[in-house]
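2024-03-11 09:14:02 DEBUG pipeline.ingest accepted 1 chain
2024-03-11 09:14:02 DEBUG pipeline.ingest length=337
2024-03-11 09:14:03 DEBUG pipeline.predict start
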Amino acid sequence: MGKDYYSVLQITRSAKDAEIKQAYRKIALNFHPVKNPGDRHAADRFRESSEAYDVLSNPQRKAIYDQFGEEGLKNGVPLDKTNWSDPYTFCGDPHKIFHEFFGGDNPFADFYKHAELDKSENFGGLAGRGRKKQDPPIERDLMLSLEEVFHGCIKKMKISRRVMNDDGHTSSFKEKILTITVKRGWKPGTRVTFEQEGDQGPNSIPADIVFIVRDKPHPIFRREASNLVYVQKIPLASALTGTTIHVPTLDGRILDIPITDIVKPGFTRSIPGEGMPLVEDTNTKGDLIIEFDIEFPKYLNSDSKDFIKKALIPNAYKKEDKPKKQNVQMKSSDFED
């Protein structure tokens, strides 16, 4: 069961924006690590309340969460026939949410006048004023089909981020479209970075947003480096006697491949230049590797089994033995009249 952000902030689902802010303020101040040094429970409550506020204070995230729960929020949901919402990932830094909520001022200054906190940049203290620290990168998966990587394409990624208003103290959420030009042959793990496109804060540098290329599962092929692997089912009879198979390609062609060798378990056939384009030279491609899945018959009658034995096991049936000569001992009396 998913997280209940409303329970975390101890509010009802009908709570308005002001109530959400008030609830977060109370919990964040009560459970802040400065007031609860070494208290693991307080640290967990502080972090949970930060994530809950980050979701419920954003109208779009809140709407998705209210309808689809945590799973829909973090996995994305269909907005229309072609577009999905961006999966939500908490920034992982509750101090960042706290810092932005209080506008960079230290709410504990009146209580900890002699503490080192006043010198910390985490809350805009004396030593921290004017200094900005960049938030850690926000990483998101960029799911691409093999066709998109094979041909190259343009991907439009919609993000929702917090931006500072003109007064320099308050913020609001705005949507933005990031354009990614997918180059042919991009490999899984390729990183595309958009600098400082994360949430803005009064005393922090926005995080970079990093999209990481991942392969979508393909119904026919799988990618291994620059090669494509295709699995061909083949009946046992064809595996033994030969056949011609018809193999599709990512660009819509059909290759007719004659198989004249005996196909044994582990046998493969490699077709050069029919794999994925190389990033460094898109005119050069990897190989198409054909793996074989031999289909054995489910049943054989006795005549079929005898026929196969005669064909595959020459010595299975020996020639019929000739009648043996009898060794008869004759007596001399046998020849007398």
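2024-03-11 09:14:41 DEBUG pipeline.report The two ends are 114 Å apart (CA to CA).
2024-03-11 09:14:41 DEBUG pipeline.predict end
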